[in-house]
Design goal:
heterodimer; A: Rossmann fold; 3-stranded antiparallel sheet; 52% helix; globular; B: alpha/beta; Rossmann fold; 4-stranded parallel sheet; 4 strands; 42% helix
Chain lengths: 126, 138
């Protein structure tokens, strides 16, 4: 299992957490952390790679690149959708720069898939 | 996420995937994430490669891409690693684009598309070697 997701930074004050949750996507507000959920679902060897710096670059690039084409891009979407996304991106970028939000890659193994099963699969692919 | 949230998100993405990305939109996506998948998230091509390496994806592996939209990054990973991929999402409009892209890239034999929410997948446990989702919880 592998996925990229956005999470609130650890160790935030209650006020900062509220700001992070307001600025981030809905999933930022989830009560359980991903490691605990992965463990409960039978995954182990959870590895987390912080990609927040790249997240800031990408979020900033979306804003910078789409800005000059606002009218044209907005026409291709439902009314208000483009403007809403731009506003969300601005708010999220500010939260990244304020240290409130992180983006991570989480990788985990399914403990129900035994090494033997993996070997069998590898041999089948050989 | 409430049922109402899900319905709103579905309607938004159906509308979005119904239209073909304009040339400027494709050029912007190319500059921002390095691809041309009609995506607007934060997963770059380089990060998709990191994901593939982290999962050890290789030819013949069975990969499930949840919330695939128009096929990013599942189709890319299938092309890149030789794995088989099932692309799952709810908006049929995006899955149609993904299926067409699979055909144009000669990936049809290794690609399946399934209209399903992640919460109700029609697969038995152990059907896949790897499961991914990118920018879905965002």
């Amino acid at each position: 299992m592998g996925f990229y997701t956005i999470v609130e930074s650890p160790g935030l004050s209650p006020a900062a957490r509220r700001r992070a949750r307001a600025a981030g996507p809905r999933a930022v507000a989830m009560r359980s952390d991903h490691r605990r959920l992965l463990g409960a679902a039978g995954f182990h060897d959870v590895t987390e790679l912080d990609v927040t710096a790249a997240f800031a670059v990408t979020a900033s690039a979306w804003l910078a690149e789409t800005g000059p084409h606002t009218e044209e891009l907005a026409r291709l979407e439902p009314p208000g959708a483009f403007a809403q996304r731009q506003a969300d991106r601005r708010r999220m970028l500010a939260a990244i720069h304020a240290g409130l939000l992180r983006r991570v890659l989480l990788l985990a193994r399914d403990r129900r898939r035994s090494p033997a099963a993996r070997d069998r699969r590898d041999r089948a692919h050989a | 996420m409430t049922a109402r949230d899900e319905a709103q998100a579905l309607a938004l993405f159906q509308e979005r995937y119904r239209s073909t990305p304009s040339l400027p939109a494709c050029q912007i996506e190319q500059r921002v994430i390095g691809g041309d998948w009609g995506a607007n998230g934060y997963t770059t091509m380089a990060q998709a490669d990191i994901l593939a390496r982290g999962l050890g994806l290789s030819a013949g592996d069975r990969l499930l891409d949840l919330g695939t939209g128009r096929g990013w990054p599942g189709l890319y990973l299938a092309a890149r690693t030789g794995c088989r991929v099932v692309l799952a999402d709810l908006p049929l409009e995006g899955l149609r684009v993904a299926a067409n892209r699979a055909a144009s890239e000669g990936l049809t034999a290794r690609t399946g598309v399934v209209a399903s929410a992640a919460s109700g997948l029609p697969f038995r446990a152990g059907s896949f070697d790897a499961v991914i989702h990118t920018d879905v919880l965002c």
